[in-house]
Structures are given as C-alpha cells and as structure tokens.
Amino acid sequence: MPLLDVKNLSVSFPTAGGETTVLHNASYTVDKGEVLAIVGESGSGKSVAMLAVMGLLPPTAKVTADRIVFEGKDISNLGPKERRRIIGKDISMIFQEPIASLNPCFTSGFQIDEVLKQHTDLDKKARHKRAVELLEAVGLPNPEDRLKAYPHQMSGGQCQRIMIAIAMACSPKLLIADEPTTALDVTIQKQILELLGRLQAETGMALIMITHDMGVVAETADRVIVQFQGRKMEESDVLSLFENPKHAYTKALLSALPENATGDRLPTIDYATDYTGDQA
Fold it and tell me: Name one GO molecular function term (predicted).
C-alpha cells in the first residue's frame, strides 16, 4: 500500500468569468522511503496539487478527488482539528521563499518550538534541546545564537535551513519540498539538496520534490511526474525519463535544457504544439 495515494485530484478557482480549473484529474502515489519529483514549468499546478493534499488552499478553492489517502486513511474530508494532528507532524512541507514563509515577528527558536508544542508532549527544556539538535542536523553553526535570531538577521540559505528544521521537527513520514532551492545561489542550492538527501536517507521518510529544474530531478528522484498546464503528461522512473521520454512535452522540456544549446541561441519549447492532446 502506498504511503500517499491521490486519485483524480482537481482544483478550480473562481474568476470573473465563472471558474478556472488549474489542476485536472491528477493522480499521485508515493511509497515509504521513495523520492518522487513533480516537474514542470511555473503555473503547471505542481504547488497547487500539494497544497490541496495538505488542505492549505483558500476556502474559495474548489477541490475534488476520488481519494486522498495517507497511511490507509482518507484525509480529504477531515475537519480542521483532525487535519492539524497530521499536517506538520506526519506530513510536512518546505514552502517556497523561506524569507516570506517565516514569520518576521518571531525568532527562529519560537517558530520551531511552536511546532513541537503543537505535536509533541515535550516540556520546555526538552523542546529547546530538540530545537538545538535540529539546527545542528541542518548544518547551522552556533545553534543557540540562531535560535535567538529573527529571519531578517539571517541569509536566504540560513532561513531555508530553518524552514527544513521546522519541517523535520516531528520526524514526518512524508516531506513535501516546494522549490526548496529557489532564489539561492548555486553553492547553497547544492548544500540544501545534499542536506535533504541525507535527512531522507537517515530517517527513511518519503520525499516529494516539486521543481522545474531537471538537474535537481536527475540528482534526487527515484520516480518523476511531468506536468503541463495542470495535467499529468508522463510518469516514469528517473532513468527512463531521461533516456527514453515518451510524451512530446517531456521531449520538448528535455530538449530545452541549456546544455542542448547550439551556437549562441538557447533552445525553447514550441508552444504552438498542443501537448495536452494525449498523455503518456
């Protein structure tokens, strides 16, 4: 049985003209200990899908699904109180833009402690010890000082590590990483990816990596889902995807990688083609 099993998930938002569907009957599974990459351009519905699974979309969003099953339990119709017992504990998420995601009014220590207070029975002293351990685990030096720091007092890479520490605080069974290296320089990107890989290997958690970076996919994933305009185009193991892509959009996406440039022009995707006509 998969750890997470999502069937025919669709998401719509109200618009001036009525309603716009941004995700069309998407299905996902991820097994314990597996790394699943969901790849696609901005606006392809990657983040919306996972926010729907987490129950974090605004009330105006219309979410439908045949099932959203986690550990054998359908969580799609849970009330807020029941959902809070799972979200942040068993299923956790690293959001885009760590500076924007962290609360600027509170120290990193307060924000880590908030998660531990919500989901564990640890006393204040034990929670502080756990927070220090988490900052050490994510590679932040002088953890006692970092716990007292506000987001604006840290770099983007440090804030991302704080976000990872918060997400890992309760040892989740499933971690969703939404563009975890966006806006970070190349050196820090590599460090963050290595950190996520190490934490995933050490804890045995499942990891869903949302990205538009095919290099990240090649380095981290066991299995890949390719999305375009809110639809799943192709799903395969990572080696097969790169060596033998089956869908026209996947081929176009891979051909547009910078390393395939010829002369002084970067390759581009031909959007005159209707890629949504069929799915591999």
Answer: ATP binding
**Residue where the block lists tokens 């439908």:** 64
SS3 labels along 82-133: HHHHHECCCEEEECCCHHHHCCCCCCHHHHHHHHHHHHCCCCHHHHHHHHHH
Strands laid side by side in the 223-228 sheet:
91-94, 174-178, 206-211, 35-39, 223-228, 231-237
Rounded CA-CA distance 135/183 in Å is 21
Beta bridge partners of 11: 23, 63
CA–CA gap between residue 90 and residue 171 (Å, rounded): 7
d(CA 94, CA 29) in angstroms, rounded, equals 19
Distance CA 280, CA 271 (A): 18
The owner of tokens 């519905």 is 45
pLDDT digits 0-9 by tens, 179-229: 888 767 788 888 888 888 888 988 999 999 999 888 889 888 999 999 999
